[in-house]
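It is worth pausing here to work through a concrete case rather than discussing structure prediction in the abstract. The textbook approach is simple: state the sequence, then state the predicted structure, then interpret. We follow exactly that order.
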Amino acid sequence: MSELFSVESAHALLPAVREHAGEFLTLRADLAELTAALRDDEPTHLGGVADKKALEARMYEHLTWFSGQGLEVKGWAPLTLDFPAVVDGRTVLLCWLENEDTIGWWHLPEHGFAGRRPLS
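Step two, the predicted structure:
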């Protein structure tokens, strides 16, 4: 873990996270549609193999942006991000799942998503 967030600093970063996440979700949906069209040899307005590679590269740019902010990408379908943080003197992960309006959950690093608890 490099940077540790406070609850406040994680919330301050959330608007930019949500912006990147929104773009990522669109790219992910386009990639799923294009992949299916290519597999089934169906025409699509999304293009061909080169366009698929471009979508993958753009998705990777967003994933790299998240990591560059100090976030841990735990999954991308659904997009799940952890903010390494200190809460009440304990090192925890503030957990954000795509389309959540706020960061409202945390878990211990060793417990993962199943150990999510609401922030009080």
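Step three, interpretation. Residues 7-112 form one domain. The chain has a mean pLDDT of 96.
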